[in-house]
Amino acid sequence: MTTSDHTDHTSGRTPVDHRRAVAAETARFVAAVKDADLTTEVPGCPGWTLADLVKHTGSVQRWFSVLLRTRIQEPPRTREVDLRLPDQEDGYPDWLSESATVAADAFAATDPDLPMWAWGADQHARFWARRMLFETLVHRADAERALGLRPVIDRPVAVDGIDEFLENLPFATSFAPNVANLRGPDRAICFRTTDGDEAWLVRLRPDGFGLDTAHPATVTADATVRGAAADLLLLAYGRLPHTAENLAHEGDEQLLAHWVANSAF
Q: Which of 32, 55, 132, 239 shows the greatest Cβ crowding within 10 Å of its Cβ?
């Protein structure tokens, strides 16, 4: 897999405080499920119930917190974590809230610029706070959609989430093996916001793919998807099809279908 050299293509965008946003997204998640039937199935995660979704999200927060506290410098050999999970599922919402407190304590004790191992592009502690944010946000949206609600995603956070997803996707093959299929004979896909002026150009080459950060707004793509930043974020995570009514797409339909089939994790 190849990816483009790192270039700052986020200048001019509203910065996101990932640590504060983890707390805010967790609070939204807890509010959604507090009085809900936790046996409700979650369409965004086939085979899961709301209880499974809450357990997974809190577990991720606690595991990432362990990684931060131990300042890992190599891939972890185990994911064993003392979850302190309640015996009864009706205690899960409060437990998820406590998971965010565990995370906040780990954030407070860790310099975000501390060099650390990470599976993605950014080898610093800040990678884990940013990754935790989007794990929490996407699953909060999953919970709300399972309950018949339309998720509201803050626009600057959605833009940052698209950046984060596309920056890290080339490195995700260890847990999302289909990502290795994202290659092609110099094909380009563009994602453009309709509620702003952001654009992301992804180039697929025979040896892999990556963001073209130099010319995202000027190069003609083989396929383009347009939508609000929040909807493009849900598209990236496979929660919306590219044919959804609130997205517009043009160009090579097979290329878009290939991307969608192999990019979500």
A: 132
Q: pLDDT tens for residues 64-112?
A: 999 999 999 999 988 888 899 999 999 999 999 999 999 999 999 999 9
Q: For the chain, how far is it from start to end, CA to CA, in angstroms? A: 17
CA angle 95–22–118, rounded 5-degree value: 105
> Alpha-carbon dihedral of residues 64, 175, 135, 234, nearest 10 degrees?
170
Gap between the Cα atoms of 209 and 203, Å rounded: 5
pLDDT of residue 219: 74
Mean pLDDT of 11-26: 91
Q: What's the pTM?
A: 0.93
Query: What is the CATH superfamily name and number for domain 18-152?
Result: dinb family like domain (1.20.120.450)
Domain residue ranges in the chain: 18-152, 177-263
CATH superfamily for domain 177-263: SCP2 sterol-binding domain (3.30.1050.10)
